[in-house]
Specification:
three-stranded antiparallel beta sheet; alpha/beta; binds magnesium ion; single chain; binds inosinic acid
């Protein structure tokens, strides 16, 4: 795909590595929940491609649900306050829930969402994040399944966007401005 004017894309994680890692995580989930059903809860919109691929690597009875969260304000950095924009369609009480997110950055979003879901008394709650920028954490949070730990770059592709573009890239890429200036984590 061609980069937008003024932007450059550099492949960070190629599609083959992503597919291999997603397969491993799927296998791990299949083993951990053997004989049980799972509910995959995707965080819109970034997690939808990861969820679609991951779900097909899980050999269990699986259902899908989705929620959407956003941070308050228009600042490029997470303001530290999250609100729910779209709630789940169904109850998660007594169910094995796997919250699926594209990227774990400051940890603000997943801290909020994990707390929200835990209050609803699932039987089990696990968090799967395709990417983890550990260095950016402002609130401690550890996902149960992490695809890749990455350095502090702004990345797109495989569901992740920059201004709603590039979600359909097959590889995870770093976006750079042509001026060479490093992009800050834009929400
Ligand atoms: P957190 O609350 O700071 O952990 O932010 C998580 C959310 O920020 C993710 O769900 C993404 O929507 C967004 N985000 C953080 N880093 C990136 C990135 O490098 N590329 C695209 N979106 C990102
Ligand atoms: Mg997201």
């Amino acid at each position: 795909m061609k980069a937008h004017r003024g932007e450059r894309l550099k492949v960070l994680i190629p599609r083959t590595r992503i597919a291999r890692r997603v397969r491993e995580i799927g296998r791990q989930i299949t083993q951990e929940f053997r004989g049980e059903a799972v509910l995959l809860v995707g965080v819109l919109k970034g997690a939808c491609i990861f969820l679609a691929d991951l779900s097909r690597e899980i050999a269990l009875d699986a259902s899908f649900d989705f929620l959407s969260a956003g941070s308050y304000g228009h600042a490029a950095e997470t303001s530290g306050q999250v609100r729910l924009l779209k709630d789940l369609d169904s109850s998660i009480e007594g169910r094995n829930v796997i919250l699926v997110e594209d990227i774990l950055d400051t940890g603000v979003t997943l801290n909020y969402l994990a707390r929200l879901l835990r209050e609803r008394h699932p039987r089990a709650l696990r968090v799967a994040a395709l990417l983890d920028k550990t260095d950016r954490r402002t609130q401690p949070f550890e996902a149960d399944y992490v695809g890749f730990r990455i350095p502090n770059h702004f990345v797109v592709g495989y569901g992740l966007d920059y201004a709603e573009r590039y979600r359909n890239l097959r590889d995870v890429c770093v976006v750079q401005l042509d001026s060479g200036r490093k992009k800050r984590g834009k929400k």
